[in-house]
Amino acid sequence: MFIAGSQAGPEPNHGVCLFQAAMVYAAPGLTSSAALAFSLEMYLLISFTLQQKRLQHRHKLALLCMPYCVLFVLKIEILVLGLKTPSSVRRDNETYMYCHLESHIPFIHNDHLSQRMGVLTRFSGPK
Predict the structure, then answer these.
(1) Cα–Cα distances in angstroms (integers) from residue 95 to residues 2, 28, 69, 81, 122, in the given order
(2) 9 belongs to a structural domain
(3) Which pTM value belongs to this model?
(4) What does the alpha-carbon distance between residue 29 and residue 64 come to, in Å, rounded to a whole number?
(5) Does 99 fall in a domain?
(6) What is d(CA 5, CA 12) in angstroms, rounded to the nearest whole number?
(7) Residue 77 is inside which H or E element, if any?
(8) Does 4 reside within a domain?
(9) How far apart are CA 100 and CA 92, in angstroms?
(10) pLDDT digit string, tens, across residues 6-64
């Protein structure tokens, strides 16, 4: 809302507010999946180097695309939730700097996703 100039006054445009909420809620999934992709790539590179093999290009490409696929899926989820219940998309009343959804579903999904990515990151190393 800060960049759009809608931090004061009446509620901002629903589309701008919903897009910003989708970006805010999808960011934790992006960072946790990027950490998982990074640790998996390091593990695979070290394993393949010890076996005197090369990591295939398709594996590198999959690891590179994975965080952005997670970001895309989470953004779509938030956009669908926001479009189904437009009244749940609101500007934050404390800081007036960002929009959010009044539903707790995005919090729960982000929490579960981040926890799973963290566990996978922790156990992706050598056994």
Answers:
(1) 10, 20, 31, 23, 36
(2) no
(3) 0.74
(4) 15
(5) yes
(6) 9
(7) helix 57-84
(8) no
(9) 7
(10) 666 677 788 888 888 888 888 888 988 898 889 888 888 888 888 888 888 888 888 89
